[in-house]
């Protein structure tokens, strides 16, 4: 494709992109296709001859789009958002064009230096001590795995990296019974073993009970285990519960255990001074992760990973084969030594665009709007006696269920809520997901899409009530 042809196609696609952003609400939020519909429409092998862009783009519209769940539709209230924003998309276009592989400083100095600066902006913005260093990773899962590996190497004095697990076993990782599956996955990959991930029980608000953590660690030490790492969650995926960081930090400090903080979603909200209190105790932690690709309007993937002592991280991951040696080694950061992959995308550009476009003021305004909308919905749910909050609202996440007073059987209520979720999502007007809290089937509504406004939440709440009543009505007729 020559530059003129590229220009023509790119203009067409930019037009399409702007139209999409303008009309994204007209698409069903959750893709309505049946399994294999898309697969069966795609040719079974590489085409023999090159095809025209017009044909490819036509298929994009006709084959690809129906299989899209529209995460950028403001009525997307499922999981946690994976937001974009116009400045982020523009930066991604430029990044794709430059096609940089920023593994080392020399392979594109700006990819390293802008990343260093962006991690400082975020570090200072969310209240991480200024002696910490940050690096962009592809996912919170990868950052958590890095934390466990780094903890392992610090504890074994880098012997596992050298000699394998010889004589170094009985490691333990601690997290609450609410923490994300990535902790268990990380522990499995790091050789700790799933059975050595000890899940500490939680209180009514589903926060880790630090007293029980303390007891468990003492018992383990007595039995000859090596407590390796504690993972505290600031904002669990199920209900956005906040583990008591300061109390956990004191335990970690007392026993010299690596403390990793998983704030994958909620981390963005620490840009708000009113939530800074939750970060109390951060100086006792060793690492911290949050995803700008969730609630900070930056395209997936972009994970911010911070460590207190970058030397431990570098000692764990750095490699220097002859073909990677450069003259600037030692003078600059070579981020390939700060994590697992060698090759690295130029991800800091989109962060720079986003933070400059919105400014601190703009970011805070959006985050506060989302939290205010959740507060509004919380009050509405309180007012309607057929609905209840299953746990109190935390930030912008509402966990609730339909609970018509005439139905008392818990299983029947669970079934109704499951049906309610299915009906709502099948309508395509909004998208919610669920979790289970102590056996209660709970609807989760995360209000945080970049463009969500009061009208979307009002409409969603209206629809939820209407569909719930219809389901209850049909039950009665049965
Ligand atoms: C989303 C999430 C993760 C996983 O994030 P990835 O970047 O997809 O790996 C981990 N922990 C929490 C609390 C999350 O919300």
From TrEMBL:
Which cofactors are reported in the record for this sequence? pyridoxal 5'-phosphate
Q: For this protein, what is any one GO molecular function term? A: transaminase activity
- Tell me which domain of life the UniProt entry assigns to the organism this sequence originates from: Bacteria
Under the heading InterPro entries, the entry gives: Aromatic_deC, PyrdxlP-dep_de-COase, PyrdxlP-dep_Trfase, PyrdxlP-dep_Trfase_major, PyrdxlP-dep_Trfase_small, Pyridoxal-P_BS
Q: Which Gene3D superfamilies match?
A: Aspartate Aminotransferase, domain 1, dopa decarboxylase, N-terminal domain, Type I PLP-dependent aspartate aminotransferase-like (Major domain)
Question: What are the protein's UniProt keywords?
Answer: Aminotransferase, Decarboxylase, Lyase, Pyridoxal phosphate, Transferase
One Pfam family from the record: Pyridoxal_deC
Similarity annotation: Belongs to the group II decarboxylase family.
Q: What is this protein called?
A: Aminotransferase class I/II-fold pyridoxal phosphate-dependent enzyme
Species whose genome carries this gene: Sediminicola arcticus
């Amino acid at each position: 494709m020559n530059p003129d042809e590229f220009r023509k196609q790119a203009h067409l696609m930019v037009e399409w992109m702007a139209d999409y952003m303008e009309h994204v609400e007209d698409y069903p939020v959750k893709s309505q296709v049946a399994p294999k519909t898309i697969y069966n429409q795609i040719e079974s092998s590489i085409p023999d001859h090159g095809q025209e862009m017009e044909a490819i783009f036509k298929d994009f519209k006709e084959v690809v789009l129906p299989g899209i769940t529209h995460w950028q539709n403001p009525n997307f209230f499922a999981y946690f958002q994976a937001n974009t924003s116009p400045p982020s998309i523009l930066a991604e276009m430029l990044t794709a064009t430059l096609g940089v592989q920023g593994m080392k400083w020399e392979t594109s100095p700006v990819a390293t230096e802008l990343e260093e600066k962006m991690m400082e902006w975020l570090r200072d913005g969310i209240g991480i001590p200024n002696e910490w260093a940050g690096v962009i990773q592809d996912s919170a899962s990868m950052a958590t795995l890095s934390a466990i590996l780094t903890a392992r190497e610090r504890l074994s004095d880098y012997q596992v990296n050298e000699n394998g697990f010889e004589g170094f076993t009985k490691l333990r990782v601690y997290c609450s019974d609410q923490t994300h599956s990535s902790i268990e996955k990380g522990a499995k990959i790091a050789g700790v073993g799933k059975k050595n991930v000890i899940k500490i029980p939680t209180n009514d608000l589903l926060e880790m009970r630090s007293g029980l953590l303390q007891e468990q660690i003492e018992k383990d030490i007595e039995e000859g285990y090596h407590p390796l790492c504690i993972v505290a969650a600031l904002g669990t995926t199920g209900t956005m519960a906040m583990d008591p960081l300061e109390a956990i930090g004191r335990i970690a400090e007392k026993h010299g255990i690596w403390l990793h903080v998983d704030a994958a979603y909620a981390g963005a909200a620490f840009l708000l001074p009113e939530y800074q209190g939750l970060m109390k105790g951060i100086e006792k932690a060793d690492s911290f992760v949050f995803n700008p690709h969730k609630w900070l309007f930056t395209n997936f993937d972009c994970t911010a990973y911070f460590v207190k002592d970058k030397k431990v991280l570098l000692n764990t991951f750095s490699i220097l084969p002859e073909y990677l040696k450069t003259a600037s080694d030692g003078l600059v950061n070579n981020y390939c030594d700060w994590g697992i992959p060698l090759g690295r995308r130029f991800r800091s550009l989109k962060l720079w665009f986003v933070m400059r476009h919105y400014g601190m003021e703009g970011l805070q305004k959006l985050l506060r709007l989302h939290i205010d909308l959740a507060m509004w919905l919380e009050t509405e749910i309180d007012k309607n006696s057929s609905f209840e909050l299953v746990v109190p609202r935390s930030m912008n996440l509402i966990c609730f269920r339909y609970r018509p007073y005439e139905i008392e059987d818990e299983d029947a209520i669970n079934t109704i809520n499951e049906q309610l979720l299915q009906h709502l999502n099948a309508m395509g007007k909004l998208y919610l997901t669920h979790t289970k809290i102590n056996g209660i089937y709970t609807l989760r509504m995360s209000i945080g899409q970049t463009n969500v406004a009061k009208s979307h939440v009002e409409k969603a709440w209206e629809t939820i009530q209407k569909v719930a009543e219809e389901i209850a009505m049909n039950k009665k007729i049965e």
